[in-house]
Amino acid sequence: MAMRDLIIISNVSDDPFAIDIGHACGQVEDMADLISLKVYANTEFCPRYLSDENDMDHIGQSLTGKVVVICSTATDHTRGALAMRTMVLARAAKDNGARKVILVEPDLFFSAQDRGPFRGADEESRSVEDLKKFDGQAFTGKLYAELLHSSGVDAVITVHNHSSKVQKLFSQTFNGGFYNLIPDELYADYIKYSDMVSTGTDGSNLVLCAPDMGAIPFVNQVQKSIGLPKVARIVMQKSRAGERQVSMTVSEQSDITLEQLEGKDVIVLDDMVRTGSTIMECCRRLRAGNPNKICFGVTHFYASPEGRENLNTRELDEILSLNTIPSILNRDTQGRLRKKMVVLKIEKWIARFLLKHLDRDASKFDRSFYSVDMSSKNPRWRPNTGR
Question: What separation in angstroms does the CA of 87 have from each of 129, 147, 148, 149?
């Protein structure tokens, strides 16, 4: 069986995300013809890269010179199970001669566990009280990076990772082979060329909102990518009274005041949403300025029942998300939010980066580098909406 020098697979069978990336990269073989993801009766995972069964001269060499890309996204399997599958797949690839193994994990596993109960070289500023919070735990984000590397992964591609510590340790562990893709161009393109908001002359009708100080860099990147000189920013300063009790004030770092939002379209931008309590309070505060429309752009959408309930508020008009967690494409997962959900599918965007990373032609994605998924319940829905 002839195999190309670039092989794109997943750690689960028939994963649509991996299939779409493979298709965008020009892979014509079905994943089932490239690898068998078998599981023993005792539940142990035992994958096998498929080779010519009659070739007795290249045993253990069927992947020699090839690049193997493993796509890993959250599914019905636990993250621990998916992580283990990825490591076995990476080791199998290297044991059979692969030149390079790349992990594509848009929502990087265990990166929220970015601290441990010890003083490392990068943790000297942490107080004893902070260290005590993690007494008895593992520094799991660091462990995950080390396990991936030792299993044979050479590079990791993720999307909009929020932890600067995780970014640093992955870059160190993979000797610079860590790529945290920031989706500012995706949001900017959709904001400019769809009818979600009205930007006005030179962006005079558009305001981008950072719901907390940590979101400012991303808001700045989207503002720059939009490229309209009059797009303004408003920054909220957040304080927590409890796990789900949030209060907000407008920061002095804002370009405009709350009163200057009147009649404008506002887009709140953040990297992730779980319970929606922060965004709900942010939108409530923004409504006091009487804007025309409030939208929420979020990279990683954890569609919890609590989050869906909170974001169903009348204060929020529309939600723009990526499919880094592919379940968000499911209408049942969206629930009542489907009437305000828009999902930008990033498989072509990931494929474009992969091809460029491997010094291959990616010019076909110069304009069409994502696609749009929207329920017909959304008032803006039209047949063949989006790119």
Answer: 35, 8, 6, 9
Indicate the pTM of the whole model. 0.94
Contact 300, 272 (CB under 8 A): yes
The residues spanned by each domain of the chain are: 6-181, 184-345
Q: Count CA atoms within 13 Å of residue 295 on its CB side.
A: 26
**Cα separation of 255 and 257, whole Å?**
7
Average confidence (pLDDT) over 154-173: 95
Q: Domain 184-345, CATH 3.40.50.2020 — does that match?
A: yes
Measure the CA–CA gap between 173 and 342, rounded to whole angstroms: 36
Residue 377, classified by CB atoms within 10 Å of its CB into exposed (0-12), middle (13-18) or buried (19+), is middle
Q: Which CATH class is domain 6-181?
A: alpha beta
CB atoms within 10 A of CB 51: 16
Alpha-carbon span 18 to 71, nearest angstrom: 6
Taking only Cα atoms into account, the Rg of the chain, rounded to an integer number of angstroms, comes to 22
